[in-house]
Amino acid sequence: MGRPSTLEERRKTLLPVLTEVFSELGYRRTTIAELAERCGVQENILYRMWSDKKAMFLAAIDFLFWRRMAKWQQALESDSSGDRVARLIDLTANDLGEQGLYRIIFSALGETDDADFKEALKQLYLRYHQRIRAEVAAYRAERTSNNSPGEADTAWALIAMVAFLNIAIELDLLSPTGRKRLFQTISKFLLDDGSD
């Protein structure tokens, strides 16, 4: 069996750092020199792994999705009590604004005149929607009746709520406790039509 690619291993090591820098500075203010300095490498090393800054940024967007999915999976595997959706809601409520990483998404929204940025964000949200919709469907399959919105609409509404709450973080509209309470209340309403 062949040796794993050291380039791929290095890419995996550097992606969290790139993601943090893009989160802090946004796409336009981030320079390759800054990325290289924070990663502790020469610029040419970054160019061996990615063709340009745009490729690095798009990789950071993809990294966000997979990191979130790993956190969700870990939360679901760590506790067998209760229902899956409740655990995901609690995890999301507690992680709102995690390290300001939502700023990468906001930064990318300003670049959607570029088809690659637009497609990356579209795929990010479609993948989130698919995963959330599956969890909502499984949750509702265990319940007898419910007047809640459809599964697809519920998934989109939950995604929209997280987007709003990330804006609320940036603008200091709600306290951390207020954001958590609002997300849990609205999530419960969407899933169960407010019933217990």
TrEMBL record:
Gene Ontology molecular function: any one: DNA binding
InterPro entries per record: Homeodomain-like_sf (IPR009057), HTH_TetR (IPR001647)
Record keywords: DNA-binding, Transcription, Transcription regulation
KW Transmembrane helix (keyword) present: no
Presence of the UniProt keyword ATP-binding in the record: no
Domain HTH tetR-type: 8-68
Superkingdom per UniProt: Bacteria
Annotated PROSITE patterns: HTH_TETR_2
SUPFAM superfamilies per the UniProt record, alphabetical: Homeodomain-like
DNA-binding region residue numbers: 31-50
PANTHER family linked to this entry: HTH-TYPE TRANSCRIPTIONAL REGULATOR YJDC, TRANSCRIPTIONAL REGULATORY PROTEIN
Designated name of the protein: TetR/AcrR family transcriptional regulator
Organism the protein comes from: Aeoliella straminimaris
